[in-house]
Each structure stands twice: as structure tokens, then as C-alpha cells.
Amino acid sequence: MTDLDIRQLDGLFNKLGLGNLTAELQPVTGGLIHKMWRAVTDKGAFAVKQLNPTIMARPRARGDILGGEEIARGFAKQGIPVSAALSFDGETILNVGDAEIMLFAWVDGVTLEADDVTTQHCLQIGELFGQMHECRLSIEKFALPASQAFDKDHWTGLIERSQSTGCEWVDEARAALSELVRFSAAYSEALPLLQSDMVASHRDMDIKNVMWDPDGNAVIIDWEAAGPVHPMWELLDAAFNWCGQSSGQPNKELFKALIAGYRTVQPLDTAMIEPVFAGCLGARMEWLEFNMQRSINADTPPDEKAMGTEQVTSTLADIMSLAARRIEFVEWLRSSA
């Protein structure tokens, strides 16, 4: 993605009554798909999300993003601390030249590094999940998540393409092929159960998508993935993220604190433990497949290609580590019920 045209952006801010830019745009790190900027005007500070045109070309992308913002606004009305996109005459996605953007009030806070997460953070996050799931916002107008379990031919085809393009992760992926096929089959079997009892929620509330204000209160950001989800699936996936599973050194106390926070509001559905574990692996395989495509495709911009390559390696490691610890994690969860 090219950088935004600052003169056109300044004109848009002025037209919307948000003031005139008083400084250069500052890039905000952390986004894995879209670009984020901090913009300061004479009327305040704003976050600018520059939408990835490759993603926006997908048939469901625009509807999913707008639906996610509708869910965020619904939770805001219920007192959940969210950062929702600003809307102007009913428009949430705006144009700056050829670019599409979304605007947000700037949140005065920080995101945590994994090493900074404490049990108090996890208790608060678990409680927020419980409160969101308890709201039972209507999901009738929202499409089911586009979940997909890939078969052996698909994984094999990606690996063959990666070999022909010289991707550095080809050997790792080939070594994991049989496991990917097995996990995909389990995911395919679990999906009907995972879609049997769904609530509207964030669906990607990991560490990078929560900001903490100066008083230590959470503000949930980045709602583009929001939609219907099985509550236990979202809860377990978040517990893995917040306990440091992706680092290979998960912290039992953090895991159990997040579950404990949830249980102050909602009970656990222990009958769904095995299906939701398959779902957690499946969601990671969907992210893996997306990044394999980013890494392989010739028309992927160089910066996105590099990010895709990096994410393939880290996601493969996360999948294999999570699978290896399945029995341990299931015991942690059952003992928390």
C-alpha cells in the first residue's frame, strides 16, 4: 500500500469538521493487514485506518467491516468499553484519493507486550468476554463466519507453489503436512457444532487489540473481524493468546485468571472443550493459509510478502505447539470449571 496523500486527507478532515492537520502523519505499528496512522488536527487527535485494497477486493470484506462496526456500536450502548469507527452522514468507510480509510477518536493508552500481561489484566479481559457474551446482541443480519477447512490437495498445492517460488518456509510446511491434514479434518468435523450456538462478539480480541488507559482500564479496538462466534471458541482462543501460548511458554496462572474472570459472569460449557480446541487450531490454519498465499503470490507487495513469510513461520510453530499441549490445556480448562 502506498502512503496516504496528506493534502487530500487534510481536505477531508476539514470537510468533516475535524479541523486541519497540524503535523505529519505518524505510523502506528502492530497492524498485520491494514495500515494505521496517528493524525493530529487543531481539534484533536485521530486514528486513521488505511484499508488494504487486496482485502477490500474480496466480496465479503466491506460488509464484514461495516457489520463489525455495528456490533462495536451495539456493545458501546451496553456499556462495553470499545473504540468504534466514526460515522459521517451514515458513512463509515471514506475515500482519500484512491485509498479507503476509517477514522477513530484517538485512544489515550497503550497496548501491552506479552511479557507485561498480568493476572489482573486477564481477569479484566475474561470478565469483558463474559459481559459481551451475556449481551446476546442480535446476530440475525450477520453472515456466519467464512470458516474453511482445507483438504490435503490444497495444502499440497501451496507447498508445491512455495517450492517453485523459493519460499524459505517450504521445508517446515512439508514436514507439518500430515498434521495439517489431520487438524483440518478435525476442524471440518467440529464446525457444525461450533456454529450451533453463536453470539455476536469481537472474534480477535488478542493482546494487540486491547488498549489500556492510564487508569488501567481496557478499551477494545479493531472490530473488523467481529461477528457471530461460539462463546467457548472465542474464550479458549483468547485464553491461549493472553497466556502466551504463541511464545511456546504458556503461563497457567494467566490462562486460569482469564477463565476465572469469565466465570464471574458466565458459566463454562465443558461439553464443547474438544470441538473448540479443534476450532482454535482451525482458525490458526486459516491464518496460516492466508499468509502462505501472501508469501507466494507474485502480485503481493514486497512489504506484505515479507510479513506473510514471517507469519507463516510463526503460525506453523504456534499450531504445532498448541497441538502438542492439547492434553495439558484441556486439563487447565476442566479444572477451571
Structure write-up:
The protein is of the alpha+beta class and about 325 residues long. It has helices spanning about 5-15, 55, 60-75, 120-135, 150-165, 170-195, 230-240, 250-265, 275-295, 300-325, 325-335, and strands at about 25-30, 35-40, 45-50, 95, 100-105, 200, 210, 220, 225-230. The strands form three sheets. Strands 1-2-3-5-4 form a five-stranded antiparallel beta sheet, with helices on one face. A two-stranded antiparallel sheet has the order 6-9. The chain has a two-stranded antiparallel ribbon with strand order 7-8. Helix 6 packs across helix 9, helix 7 (about 230-240) packs antiparallel against helix 8 and helix 9 (about 275-295) packs antiparallel against helix 10 (about 300-325). The protein is globular, with a radius of gyration of 20 Å.
Characteristics of this structure?
Phosphorylase Kinase, domain 1; globular; 2 domains; Aminoglycoside 3'-phosphotransferase, Chain: A, domain 2; 337 residues; five-stranded antiparallel beta sheet
